[in-house]
Amino acid sequence: MTSGLVEQVRAYGGPTPVPFVPEVRAYLAPEPVGLWDRTAGEYRSAEPPPFWAFAWPGGQGLARYLLDHPEAVAGRRVLDLATGSGLVAIAAARAGAARVRAVDVDPVATVAVTLNAAANGVAVEVSTVDILDGDAGDAEVVLAGDAFYSAPLAGRVLAFLRRARRGGAVVLVGDPDREFLPRRLFTAVAGYDVPTRPVLEDVSVRRTTIWRLG
Q1: What is the CA radius of gyration of the chain?
Q2: Which of 213, 126, 124, 130 is nearest to 164 (CA)?
């Protein structure tokens, strides 16, 4: 980890309990900070907004599900796709996964995952990589929290998850009713009312469903 990236994460303060998953602590943006505040009020490809600094409802719901149902991952090799803060990966590790790998394309996010995992006393393998055109390797469970928020990304994520499912992996998705999730391909296994920040979601609670592919 480079010191500059570590300082970007630590600029938000110390790890704090995640609202819907208080068993997990993470470096998160404080309540007054909006999604684009850290990037001069606009999205710039060279300096993307700190998506990792927020506990999105899909990830919070999926993490809650894993802690409530540890048998979903206990003793299994787990891959957390587009991990962000690492919340879902950390929950999987706490639930007894044999091994957890977390991937994200944002190098600051993967530094945040490393720091967050250490703060929670769990082991998570972290990679800064785009694996969506590949496969899930030897993962027995593939997790995706809030990954269907845009059409181009949703198409790539779905193709990856379907390959993982055909390869024998269990695929679980946490989704707060995003437009681009093809629900017909999934079976709902749980639902939660997840508290959210109006600055992010325009509402204070999002109904979040945990879906199983195939």
Answers
A1: 16
A2: 213
- Rounded mean pLDDT of 151-176? 97
| Helix residue ranges, H only, 11-86 | 57-68
Query: Which single residue is written with the structure tokens 């068993």?
Result: 23
Amino acid at 151: A
Residue numbers of the domain that contains 173: 3-213
Higher pLDDT, 149 or 120: 120
Characterize 127-143 residue by residue with b for buried, 16 or more Cβ atoms within 10 angstroms of its Cβ, and e for exposed: eeeebbeebbeebbbbb
CA distance 93 to 114: 13
CATH code of the domain in which 57 resides: 3.40.50.150
Cβ 59 vs Cβ 84: under 8 Å: yes
Domains held by the chain: number: 1
Q: pLDDT tens, 65-85?
A: 999 999 999 999 999 999 999
What are the structure tokens assigned to 128, written together?
């800064």
